[in-house]
Write a structure and sequence with these properties.
108 residues, flat, 4 helices, 64% helix, mainly alpha
């Protein structure tokens, strides 16, 4: 006989389903990346004072987000990294409207 799911397991399944939906859109991925960057997942937490505890708390949240992403789709985080690079490359290219061209004419 199958075991009944606990409240926490049901909530986790809902979160995983919601994460899958979030990962389907570029906007959702950008929001995720924003929060991951705020959490300092790849930063050193140690400061030599009590700020270390705060930093570690933020980092812990980032790791939980990454774990939820893995539960939703194991390849989501690597894809997010690649897509983030592509978005940054697109944004660093100058727009045609932003480019000033010299027409060789004279004023006046």
């Amino acid at each position: 006989m199958a075991r009944k799911k606990t409240k926490e397991e049901k909530e986790h399944l809902v979160l995983v389903a919601n994460m899958r939906e979030l990962l389907k859109t570029r906007a959702g991925k950008e929001v995720l990346w924003h929060f991951l960057s705020l959490t300092g997942v790849y930063s050193t937490c140690f400061t030599g004072n009590s700020t270390t505890f705060f930093n570690e708390g933020q980092r812990s949240i980032g790791l939980q987000i990454m774990e939820l992403m893995d539960d939703a789709d194991i390849s989501a985080y690597p894809r997010l990294l690649l897509e983030k690079r592509e978005v940054e490359d697109e944004r660093s290219e100058p727009d045609d409207a932003d480019t000033i061209t010299d027409t060789g004419g004279t004023d006046g």
